[in-house]
Structures are given as C-alpha cells and as structure tokens.
Amino acid sequence: MMNQHLRKILTFVFTLLVGGVVFAKTPVFHYVVIKTDKGTCLLKLYNETPKHRDNFVKLVDSGYYDSLLFHRVIHNFMVQGGDPDSRYAAEKQALGNGGPDYTIPAEMQEGLIHKKGTIGAARDDNPAKQSSGSQFYFVQGRVFSNAALDSLEQFRLKGKKLSDAQRKAYTTVGGTPHLDGNYTVFGELMNGVETIDNIAAVKTDEKDRPIRDLRMSMKLLTRREALNLEREAAGLPAKTGVLTRFFDLFSSKRY
C-alpha cells in the first residue's frame, strides 16, 4: 500500500516536472511596450545585438526610462530620448549628455539597417563607435527614389554602394541610409510606427527640443505575454488556460 502511494506521489511530481519543462518555453525575442504622449508602440529587440538587447532589457525592467523626455526631435530624420537628466529638466535646459557611466561596444550588423521604425543607439564621436548606455533614437527618415540613392552613394557615401535589400527598404518603407554602418541598430517596431510620425511632427526649439515636453514609459513583456504574442503572429491561439496558468506559477516571468 505504501509503495503504491509513493509511486502515485512520484508520478505526480514527475508529471509536474515534465509539464514545467514543456510549458517553460522561452520566447524567440524580447518585446517592450512604449507609451508616449503621442501614442503607444511595440518594440522587438534583435538577438543579433545581444549587448544592446540585454542592456535595454535591464534598463526597461528597472523603470529607468519612465517619465524621461524625447529631448531631440528632427522631422523626417529621427526622435531621440533616454537622457536621465530629462526627467526633471527645466524649460530650455540643454539635454543630450546624460546617461550611465558606461558605454556599449558597437554591434553593427550588415543586415540591420536604418529603415523607418527601427531603434538605434545614440553615441558621441568616439572612434570605436561605442553606444551611449541609455540614449536611443527611433528612425523616421523618408522614402527615397533610386535616383536619390544614386546621388547619396556618390556624394555622401563616397562611392560606397547600397545593397539590394537597402535599396528596397529605402524606396518603400523609407529611413535614413546614411547612418548605416555608423550606429548600432538593435530593434524595430512591430506596431505603432505612426507614433514616431506624431512625435516628429511637433514644434521644436532651436536645439530640436519639443516646445511641449513629450514623456515616455516602458514595460517589458513577460515570458507568457511574449510567447502568446509569437503564437498569435504564427496564426496560433494564445495559451491562457488553467493548465498554462498553473505551470506558469513554477516559471519565472522573465527570460
């Protein structure tokens, strides 16, 4: 009788362990919801740039970006934020030099380009092109004709040729091709790209700071939220059942 009871207990524990492994699947990407005074958007972080991805996840999860301003806005170019000095900045205060006391090594990838809706890491003029520890920009840019890209190659890029993939992106979606190879691109918006257009359309002062403060807040999706997002993107239903919620109790919300 005792052995039978013990076997039932062991079987139950084994089932929990196996179920926990099955249900503890890890999402492919990290995702961040960004709320602004001009709309909300969903950001996917690239795995090809792990140092930038992990740093951004850490800062978002700590609430670092909450209440910071988009302090530099240039229409048809980009919108920039992430300076911690902007949280309590006075009107007309110069911004753009704040951040953690570290930089991130450059992680430029040939296929990760400055098409509209991507996020890039801001930096100063350091020769190694290391990124700011916190400041970032969203690309707005503009749509180019092939003739305009020909001119860009000849004059601004000093003869360097754009790839077919670059030309396709910049003549359809648009962006800022002259930044490619100079700044690390580490993610792209899954939705809410119009938020960038809304921010880029505001009135700014002589230093490109919006006349009216534009604030942000960010939230990292949990493991389950990210998994369900990826399931829905693949045409599958989200997992929200009792069994899923039960096994999620034994898994971390982070990944």
Automatic annotation (TrEMBL):
Gene3D superfamilies recorded: Cyclophilin-like (2.40.100.10)
Keywords on record: Isomerase, Rotamase
E.C. number(s) listed in UniProt: 5.2.1.8
Pfam families to which the protein is assigned, alphabetical: Pro_isomerase
Single Gene Ontology MF annotation: peptidyl-prolyl cis-trans isomerase activity
Catalytic activity: [protein]-peptidylproline (omega=180) = [protein]-peptidylproline (omega=0)
InterPro entries: Cyclophilin-like_dom_sf (IPR029000), Cyclophilin-type_PPIase_CS (IPR020892), Cyclophilin-type_PPIase_dom (IPR002130), Cyclophilin_A-like (IPR044666)
PANTHER family (alphabetical): PEPTIDYL-PROLYL CIS-TRANS ISOMERASE-RELATED, PEPTIDYLPROLYL ISOMERASE DOMAIN AND WD REPEAT-CONTAINING PROTEIN 1
Family stated for the protein in its record: Belongs to the cyclophilin-type PPIase family.
Role: PPIases accelerate the folding of proteins. It catalyzes the cis-trans isomerization of proline imidic peptide bonds in oligopeptides.
Protein name, UniProt field: Peptidyl-prolyl cis-trans isomerase
Source lineage: Bacteria, Pseudomonadati, Bacteroidota, Sphingobacteriia, Sphingobacteriales
